[in-house]
Design brief:
By secondary structure, the chain is an alpha/beta fold. The chain is built from 7 helices and 10 strands. The mean pLDDT is 93.
Length: 191
């Protein structure tokens, strides 16, 4: 069965002071760097944002939030809802060091659980995870109740955590999960 890959580009970027999707990292806008890293990992590549005009040049199918103003959980719901395939790899647009080997491994585990999510330093990385369509009802309930913590519905689903020992096969220091939120983050990563 196929997989949809969804790039999340809906954040406010308030700490960055401008849309971080278009911040240059190693000479390339973050959104393009992420797109290039994940483009061929699935059967379909989509973009989730509420600013479609700003991303039209990427030539990707773009979807705005099905349920507005619900943050990242709303974006994940939108991605899984619009996905043409039973499983959706969700990645954030501000993760410049996504590791293709790790992502491929996670995709290979998709039939083992409703959610496949890495756990680094004891915390799950829900914006670097695979979600099955079976998650939609539980996510919808949380969204309707305005309970927007991404992992808030995990307890109702089967979850396959990818732990440090597995992650380190591809990514020894967890760089895959590093995201750029501030100008300081950008400077530190560029040094």
């Amino acid at each position: 069965m196929g997989v949809t890959v969804a790039i999340m580009a809906g954040g406010q970027s308030s700490r960055m002071g401008r849309d971080k999707s278009f911040v240059l990292f190693e000479g390339q806008p973050l959104i393009e760097r992420v797109r290039d890293r994940v483009a061929d990992l699935g059967n379909e590549l989509i973009l989730i944002t509420n600013k479609p005009a700003e991303y039209a040049h990427l030539g990707l199918p773009i979807y705005g939030d099905v349920i507005p103003d619900c943050g990242p959980l709303g974006g994940i719901y939108t991605a899984v809802h619009h996905a043409s395939y039973p499983h959706t790899l969700v990645v954030a647009c501000d993760m410049p060091w996504l590791n293709r080997g790790l992502l491929q491994y996670m995709i290979s585990l998709r039939e083992t659980a409703d959610i496949v999510v890495p756990r680094w330093e004891k915390f799950p990385e829900p914006l670097h995870a695979v979600y099955g369509k079976a998650c939609l009802p539980a996510m919808y309930e949380k969204l309707q109740a305005q309970q927007l913590k991404i992992t808030g519905f995990f307890g109702r689903m089967s979850v396959r955590f990818v732990d440090r020992e597995e992650i380190e096969r591809w990514d020894e220091d967890g760089r895959s999960f590093t995201n750029i939120n501030t100008p300081h983050d950008l400077q530190a990563m560029s040094d």
